[in-house]
Amino acid sequence: MSTDSSRRDFLLKTGQGLGGAALSGLIPGIGAFGAASAAELIDPLAPKQAHFPAKVKSVIWLHMNGAPSTLDLYDHKPDLVKLAGTDVPASFLKGIKTSTQGGVGKLYASNRTWKQHGESGAWFSDLVPSIAQHADKLAFIKSSMTVGATHDISILKLNTGDLNPGRPSLGAWVTYALGSANPDLPPYVVLYNGKSEPSAGSVNWSSGFLPAVYQGTAFRPGASPILYLERPELRAASQQRHSLDLLKRLNTLGAAQHPADTELLARVRSYELADRMQSAAPEAVDLAKESDATKALYGLDDPTSASYGTTLLRARRLVERGVRFIQVVSGAPDGETEYTSWDAHSDLEKNHGLMARMVDKPIGGLLADLKSRGLLESTLVVWTSEFGRTSYGQSGNGRDHNAWGYTQWMAGAGIKAGFTYGETDEIGLQVADKDKAVDTYDLHATVLQLLGLDHLKTTFLNNGRSERPTVVYGKVIKELLA
Amino acid sequence: MTGTARSDQAELDTDLMHSIEDSNKSLASNIAIREGKGASSDAKELAEMFAQVEAFYVKRGDAVDAVELAKKSRALSAQILQSVSTGDFGAATDSATTLSRTCKTCHSYYKKS
């Protein structure tokens, strides 16, 4: 037996790689990613085989932070308009526990105009005219439901499938299962607009019990996307290169004496990745070479949509560079302090007027741009939120949280475009047919399926228990697939 | 088994529900790692606990849906036991996922007050 093969044999038997238990084939299902190779043991981000051919290479996960009222964007309910100002009929409240402070208000209709668009005839309100232009690219899930709690808890469920911290986010599972498609950039990037990181925090792009290497990397708005990535001014590029070369030589000597120490080898790689990222990451988010027409397409010429449009244009650039999962959290327009999320418990007209203007043109621009570049054939765009909002009013002119029935949509690779799955009841409060209810786990299972991953076979052994992205649930919504 | 369901109670014992949740997670894991002995043990425990849930709601007399869902869960637990005994872990996975969805359906009818 050669030295190489005995070393590999040793590593496979001991399973001491990063994520070693998983890669060493101790976990059923992991075999579908291919037997652990020496490269995988050294590099946990090495590309891995999917379970079956993937329709999607990259996912852009558009989280509308604060929970928009999809009743005022996509879910047209003429009966709600007719019944506005009256009490909610008891039959519509059956099976749900409302917790609105001050009780359930009268049914509320906002001042919307509605129109059908495209060959699909999907309804859109006047708040989203740009997205409406892409009606025939979208597949609506109008029977979305979740667990309603505080925003932070339901956002955690949206991203990790659990109400408590500790589980990996969907992006982390994807990175773990598929590895990286670009060695110069993180495979899982989080983008946001506004002054600070999203309030719900980094637990929403955490790797949970998976190795930390699979967590998302938050790119800040502005020219320098990653903190502490830039080389100090007093240090020349050549000095840094020489230092890294020396460090690499010494580490390689050490590694030769301790071939089982994969952590050392991973560290060597991480120094090199950081060095490459110093140029790759700023370049990936630098919009200087984008044309004025492209910038206008994303709404960069409007102060209200400029910051969100910038994140989506960056998202497209990251897709072009092979980043697997891009999680975009909506914030607030630059300088806006009164309305910083979609959370319209009051003043829904003002709140949604601003928030919709912030995201509508950029999202429409993103869909058009991806399509014209041929990227929509390999990219999945998911428009999602932690929950929706109630048909009954709150504070006179707002809406409360609604976990019982709301709308999300997907567009792009592998999706049945111009299609609507499920519906809410006549006033848009609850999912009409409970058998068609789509919970977070089902959405995650469907996204994974499009990436070529069987959610039941995407497993990791944590403290002796086999864990999967969909916890103990999950059903691929096959009707949404092309 | 730690939980019990006394039919003279107005609500199901929380411990019983936690035990069902724990056993269900353990079952999913044991099926995934093809640990037949553990999966069988979990499925048996679940069948017994769902029988308690069923008896509780039968006694209460005002929850037809819950009785039906408990029966369905008991039947699914038996199916899982059968699939595991023949080494068909794929079928066991499908039944276990349906079982989890059934739990969720029941909870959406009968929320904790």
What does this structure look like?
The complex is a heterodimer of chains A (482) and B (113). Chain A is globular, with a radius of gyration of 24 Å. In chain A, the strands form 4 sheets. In chain A, strands 6-5-7-1-8-11-4-12 form an 8-stranded mixed sheet, with helices on both faces. Chain A has a two-stranded antiparallel ribbon with strand order 2-3. In chain A, β2 and β3 form a beta hairpin. In chain A, α9 packs antiparallel against α10 and α12 packs parallel to α13. Chain A has 482 residues and is α/β, with parallel strands linked by helices. The longest helix of chain A has 25 residues. The termini of chain A are far apart. Chain A contains 14 helices and 14 strands. Chain B has 113 residues and is mainly alpha-helical. The longest helix of chain B has 25 residues. The relative contact order of chain B is 0.15. The mean pLDDT of chain B is 88. Classes of the chains: A alpha/beta (482), B mainly alpha (113). At the A-B interface, β14 of A face α1 and α4 of B.
Characteristic key phrases:
heterodimer, A: alpha/beta, about 30% helix, globular, disordered N terminus, B: about 110 residues, mainly alpha, 4 helices, about 0% strand
What is the residue-averaged pLDDT of chain B? 88
Name the helix and strand elements of chain B from N-terminus to C-terminus, one letter apiece: HHHH
Question: Which blocks of ≥5 consecutive residues of chain B have pLDDT under 50?
Answer: none
Category by helix and strand content of chain B: mainly alpha
Based on Cα principal axes, name the global outline of chain B: elongated
* Rg from alpha-carbon coordinates of chain A: 24 Å
Major sheet size, sense and barrel closure of chain A: 8 strands, mixed
Assembly type of the chains comes to: heterodimer
User: Which two chains share the most extensive interface?
Assistant: A-B, 19 and 22 residues
If helices are DSSP runs of H or I spanning 4 or more residues, what is the number of helices of chain B? 4
- Proportion of residues in extended strands of chain B: under 5%
Portion in helices of chain B: over 70%
Helix content of chain A: 25-40%
Beta-strand segment tally of chain B: 0
Q: Which structural class matches the secondary elements of chain A? A: alpha/beta
Distance between the termini of chain B: 25 Å
Number of separate strands of chain A: 14
